[in-house]
Amino acid sequence: MAILILRRLVQMALIIVVASFLLFLIFDTDAFKKKTAIAELGGFGVSSLSEADYQKWLDEKGLNVPFYQRYGKWLGDVATGDLGRSYEKSTAVGPLLLDRLKNTGILAFWVFALMIPLSLVTGVLAGMREGSAQDRTLSFIAVFTTSIPEIATAILLTVIFALGLGWLPAKSAMIGGFNWRQLVLPVLTLVIYDFGYVARMTRASMAEVMTSQYIRTAVLKGLPFRHVIVKHALRNALIAPFTIIVLQLNWLLSGVVVVEVFFEYDGFGKLLLEAALFGDIYVVQACTLVAVVIAVLSQIISDVGYTILNPRIRFA
Amino acid sequence: MSKNDRQHPLVEKMREQLADGRCGRREFLRNVTLLGVAAPAAYAMAGSILGKSLVPAALAQEGAKKGGTLRVAMQVQKMDDPATYSWIQMSNQTRHVAEYLTLTDAENITHPLLAESWEPNDDLTEWTFKLRQGVKWHNGDDFVADHVKWNVERWLDPALGSSNAGLSTFSAMVEDSDDTKKMIDGAVEVVDPHTIVFKLSKPVLSVPEDLYNYPTMILHPSFKPPFSDNPVGTGAYTLAELQVGQVCKLKRATQTTDGKPFTYWGDEPYLDEIHYYHFDADNQLTAFASGDVDTIYEFSIEQLPLAEALPGQVLEVRTAQTLCCRMQVDKPPFDDLRVRQAIVKACDNAAMPALVFQGRGDIGENHHVAPVHPEYYQLPKLERDVEGAKKLLEEAGKAGLEVTIDIGNTDGPWHQAVAEIMRDQLKDAGIRLNINVMPASKYWEIWTQTPFGGTAWTHRPLGTQVLSLAYRTGGAWNESHYDNPKFNEALDKAEAEVDVEKRRELMQPVEKILQDDAVMVQPIWRPVFTIINDTVQDYVAHPTEVHQFNKVWLSA
Amino acid sequence: MATTFDARPAAPPLLDRLSAPKAVLILVALMWVPLTLYVMAGRNLGVLQPYILLPAIPATLILYVLAVRAWRESWTAVIGATLVFFWLLMAVSAPYLPLLDPNKPIAPFVLPFSHGKVGDTFFWLGTDFKGRDMLSRTVWGCQRVIVWGVTATVVAYVVGTLFGLIAGYLSGWWDELITFFGNVLLSFPVMVLFIVVLNYLGPSGFNIVIAVTFASAPAIMRIVRGLTLDIKSRDYVFAAQTRGERPFYIMIFELLPNVRGPIIVDACLRLGYTTVAITTLTFLGLGLQPPDPDWGLMIKEAAKTAMLFRFSYMLIIPALSVSTLILGFNLMADGLREISLRD
Fold first, then answer.
1. Dihedral Cα B131, B136, B140, B144, nearest 10 deg
2. What's the confidence (pLDDT) of residue B338?
């Protein structure tokens, strides 16, 4: 097990090195430097610079240093915990990213807090009696909600609850400090999109367990159905959903982008998009770094958890 | 300025022109204030000539209340070095902390600010500025002329790269030496702690206006970028918090940096705090709609119906902001004058405001001088001439012409709407227009290179300022590669003339040459829009979208 | 072709004959090739442009009948197919429907089911902020998302399958290398990858294809690799090897047909994801570009001009449209899985 984790961590480090190298390579093109300059100085501003002035500007920004040197320095800095400075925001990337991650963390916490019970209950209820009307209805709801993209869910919720009924604010910029009412719509949007997927996985797992020999035996023995479900079926049926849920962390990092942008919520996703559009390389690097680490860690956790929960599987 | 025993000779001339109707009230006010007459005196002068009392809008404030926080939705940007600011938004965040020598208001009239009065010599080459006394910096120092000198020298240092150096005032203070521009010795002379003289190598009328160009804030000589780390200015507010991309909070300055009491030199402003909250251009109005803010930086024409449906007051300002669908005169097929003329003739600028700006804005006349410019000369109205366009194309052997225009929507989707209407109009003359829409950032990469592109130009107080940047041979932003010695000459003449009446006459050939050479389809002068909620009082929207909140107050 | 159009009277046998793989392929080509050309080549088609989509309309209708017939045992699949084919039909017939020009401004902010101030034009779904007909934009809007979505998915499949077959069949360091790069790409959250790739390449339909390939191909590669590893030890592959066939031949003609089943179900699901991705990316400004209508663009534009209950139809209509298309893909995938499990 320890070897497995170690292998995955080494792989993660390797991936980060390769990915960040590629990013530096991409951001080193003249086109990208120009883009950064335009984002910062404006089109008229850049055009009024002479070639020498432009080069001077690049020097000032440290963009004229050959990228492998910048890359080497960046790797060294990251190792010591320094993520560089943002061009656009003129601040250290570390605290900035931490702040945005905290916001996304709040969002993610509530998403999971709602999504896990909702999807597990739905999945178990549906998978308990495969093919029943209850199963069909719940399964259809699950497919249905998963089919509405986040952007559409966000729109429908906003139109109904914010613009129509006026119960909740339409945007979640939180400019007057934290406000739970502004958190409702983004959380709901993500939950509605995601719960269907987890519910379907739970249902499949539950359905499989229900057809297994020992459950059938238990039912035939005349044990109460409820008792069979709670005592025997659930434990085994929830192993697969556990790994799926952990992997949703990875999905969430993608899902939050559009939701945060639509609701103007200052989180990780919005930061990444803005930085990419601005050409703010150190912020993009840091975001990618965090994203990859979270993604790989969630994979490791899900693998390890699966092994622990499922005594039948042993990794060599 | 009763202290001034001497008045500039041009002032008398302006009075005559106002009296016999050759110049309008606004123009009179603008010009005499530029020449050193204080605004109240200028208003009084105009009032006595026109026989009615004119009170500047901002002076009438009954029952104004103190206190409260004004919340503004705007892009919150970094505040590094005010002298190299490249966006108005940055300057708005700084404007109430550090101040300018002058202030140009929404009516294009320039008032004294840190300068108490100014006086040019007769040929406008030497400008004497009297500085206000009793002005304190936020660090407790007294504001003196040496500080101004320090700022000007800094702007003119080529190593700094301040865009101020390109203003006509400051470019008349430098000389070429060894391939670099250097400040002429003695161009700035400190006479006494509150008097400073600018000596220019050529006559410039717009000195006070140039001193309100947004990167000309006066900073304390102890300044080290970024400004946000050590925000020392003379303003009524100080920077309390800056998080780029999130929030910028300004608080009333009550203490100096070393803890002593601080009093602002001017009238105490009403607002306790000014908060800028970061919203992208597209989202500012929706932020306003949800009640998060009291006012916004700007909304676009596409959002006007939404804005009108919201509670609050929509403010609209006429400006010289425009879109130039300009053709590069040295690239085929636009190197053929007949082709350019055909395109211009086939377009109907007069139809644009209704189709694109819901009937608002002024019709453009393809010479880039706006009706709001003081020196605007009204040429005969442009008539659409489809037959003429067809004939020209045939003569040029280009019947069935197909051209492509690059559109970056850098100022909003209305650029694209203009291009789409042009496409329909050009069809009538047998010209096929393809529209190549690209992201704004992409457009800014190619705007000086594309043969045919729609570029947004911002408002400048004088028409000649743009012409000289964009159409003079070798102009810094000559995107059309226009090169016509006759035009340059006519423009030089107009720029050197200080008499408004004569200057306008001299603009006639300038505008005419540019129009006849068919360099651009410039369909519309767009208004700018903002919106305030019912609590915001005495808010005046400015054509360059600068914020002047010292008189703004909030009702409960 | 001959098999397709002769012998009209006898209905059931004809349908049977049309259901043959070859006929279906021809019909798909008849529908797909013109549509793709129409969207990607557009004006370059010249005189052909107004007519090119005509053969696609009957082809789409016949394919729909065939799909319903083939999948009649699964209601889910039939509903899914109905939704998908509805939009396909809209896509191929948009130029021939009595619609207003989708790019022509007429009267802004006209509410649905009402006349504009102009008087005579009746707007079923109202107009947008520029005064363009919403009905027309909604119908036209499906063209680009369908064409680019399917193209991106197909390309991702070709690339993913190819690498999967190579990795699975050749093993050794090929496998190691391909798997490593697959893992590198897979450890990026999808949207992060999209943003990085599209920001680098610039927003356009073709670049979406590349970005989707980067994001999807590794997962497809994994599936195909797994299937290949499983199948490779079977007798017929061994037989081919002893016949002395080249690895490439074996991969394409022996392995590929046998991994087809699971891939088709996965493809339907992936079509849904890709549609979501394109719409989302376009909303974020990284996808398709104006002026031609597209649902993601409609949402993007309306999100800043129509944030008012009265104008919310501008948001809801494209949101519902894209949801129905994705629902169609997902239901089809579900139904097909159901059918394959029953077999």
1. 0
2. 93
Q: Any chain B CB within 8 A of the CB of A168? A: no
SS (H, E, C) chain C: CHHHHCCCCCHHHHHHHHCCHHHHHHHHHHHHHHHHHHHHCHHHHHHHCCCCCCCHHHHHHHHHHHHHHHCCCCHHHHHHHHHHHHHHHHHHHHHHCCCCCCCCCCCCCCCCCEECCCCCCEECCCECCCCCEHHHHHHHHHHHHHHHHHHHHHHHHHHHHHHHHHHHHHCHHHHHHHHHHHHHHHCCCHHHHHHHHHHHHCCCHHHHHHHHHHHHHHHHHHHHHHHHHHHHCCHHHHHHHHHCCCHHHHHHHHHHHHHHHHHHHHHHHHHHHHHHHHHHHHHCCCCCCCCCCCHHHHHHHHHHHCCCHHHCHHHHHHHHHHHHHHHHHHHHHHHHHHHHHHC
Q: Which residues pair with B323 in a beta bridge?
A: B456
Instruction: Give Cα separations from B174 to A245, B157, B183, B188 (angstroms).
Output: 68, 10, 4, 11
C116: tokens are: 């504009």
What tokens appear for B376 in the block? 């605007």
Give me the number of domains chain C comprises: 1
Mean pLDDT of chain B: 87
Residue ranges of chain B whose pLDDT lies below 50: 1-4, 57-58, 60
- Interchain pair B78, A173: CB under 8 A: no
List pLDDT tens digits, range B60-69.
Answer: 456 788 889 9
- Segment C326-338 shows an average pLDDT of 89
d(CA B405, CA C58) in angstroms, rounded, equals 38
Which segments of chain A belong to CATH 1.10.3720.10? 94-314
ipTM, two decimals, is 0.86
Q: Which residues in chain B have their CB less than 8 angstroms from residue C301's CB?
A: 302, 413
pLDDT band, residue C12 (cuts 50/70/90):
low
d(CA A288, CA C219): 20
Among chain A residues, the shortest Cα distance to C314 is held by A155
What pLDDT does residue B62 have?
Answer: 65
Chain A residue whose CA is closest to C200: A26
Q: Which amino acid is at B340?
A: R
Fold of A94-314: MetI-like fold (1.10.3720)
Kindly state whether residue C46 falls inside one of the protein's structural domains.
no
Question: Does A304 score more than 50 pLDDT?
Answer: yes
Nearest in space to B412 (alpha carbons), one of B372, B366, B357, B466: B357
Element (H, E) at B238: strand B237-243
Q: Does A47 lie at the interface with B, CB-CB under 8 angstroms?
A: yes
- Report in angstroms the alpha-carbon separations of B196 from A60, B35, B148, B187, B478: 34, 16, 8, 10, 35
DSSP state of B379: P
In this prediction, residues C167-189 reach a mean pLDDT of 84
Q: Given this model, what pLDDT does residue B388 score?
A: 92
**What residues in C contact A144, CB-CB < 8 Å?**
327
Does B427 contact chain C (CB < 8 Å)? no
- Predicted confidence at residue A259, as pLDDT, reads 94
pLDDT digits (tens, 9 = 90+) for C69-124: 888 888 889 999 999 999 999 999 998 998 888 888 777 788 888 876 656 778 88
Residue type, B315: L
Asked whether the beta carbons of B405 and B422 are under 8 A apart, the reply is yes
Task: Give the pLDDT of residue C7.
Answer: 45
Is C302 part of any domain? yes
In a domain, C86, yes or no: no
Partner residue facing B476 (CB), from A48, A89, A90: A48
The CATH code of the domain that includes C314 is 1.10.3720.10
**C183 in any annotated domain:** yes
- What pLDDT shows up at residue B95? 93
> Of the candidates B216, B198, B193, which has an alpha carbon nearest to the alpha carbon of residue B145?
B193
> The domain containing residue C121 runs over which residues?
102-342
